[in-house]
Amino acid sequence: MIEEDQTAPSQWESTAAWRELLTGLGELDQVFLTGPKAVGDDQAIAEGYRALATALEVAFDTYLFADPTRPIFVDLNTPFRRDRRWGGDNTDAYYTFTPIDPSRRYRITGNRGDSVYFSLTIYNEPTPGSWSNQIVAIANDDDLTYDEDGNFEILLGPSRPDGYDGTFLALNDDGAIALTRDYQVDPLTGRRIDWVIEALDPPGSLVRTDAATAVSLRTALRWVQMLFAIIPLTLAPREDETTLGHNSATRANDVAEPYQVQDANFGWSARDAAYCFGSFSLEPDEALVVTHRPPACRFWNVIVWNQFMAGHNVADERTSVNIGSAVPNSDGTVTVVIARERLAHPNAISTVDRPDGAIAFRWFIAESVPAKPTVSLVKAADAPTAVT
What is the pTM (predicted TM-score) of this model? Predict the structure, then answer.
């Protein structure tokens, strides 16, 4: 049998794009193997390859197999799928995603279930596969009307339909992505939203052309490359693209000042959220005692990630607490104890023996940007075991 020369030019554009994809993916592990963002142990190496596999799977779902004329919301993050732990996930939320065509009209429906906060956000896409840097439109659960069973409807399109007085989001030329958020106080028992999107205009062709497939493959690769321009997170502060959209703490075992997301953002941040980020670096006998005063808000949580901004499934280990699961102190503050194994405090969370990684707070629809949490490094044996 004569083998085809894989380096020879092909008459098919999709063949060239496929080879570019394989080459590009083959180079991306160098981001975490060598250079300034090289990770330090075998656990982090394993996490890096899992992050690559997850990123490719998400990119295929959202770009190769997606069709804006026949849209379907696909899961980006869930509390239960290990192949959807990426991008700053958390154990309390479901995120879904679909590309859209801003010249078309859509109807989105769902039932609020047990969601404590949910929203639909329309983002731009500066170039195919590039991460968003602008929020085009948003509707959260306060903006909607519901029937007696909790069902809701949102219409999208270039202009509001005549006579329609329900929730409508106008799509300008930049509207490229619809992303949903659904937060649960108890994801183990809460009923998630089943987001349904319906195209109101005739669909496009089902024929998948060579040229269109090539575009999708290149778009998927660009999306993965954008992600790995951000991850893995470096343990020391860096003045480069890895800090876009997030404040950085000045040292390990600390957090930065919280901030409110603006319409101009990087990487699909939530407009209704205030964030606070930090890092941990812990020996087996150490713990972090983190205390904050939650403002009045719809929802908050704190979670630990690895260097690839990924957490664990909610049923695997307790790696986060939220507004419903945390036990407050008598003065209204909340203390969380972070260690490599879960300690005795009611709000203790585990890094699952990861020695270093990131800490992330988020507060939704807060009446004010929270004050900076306090962080103390202590011996695990000296960590508090009860609320005060």
Answer: 0.92
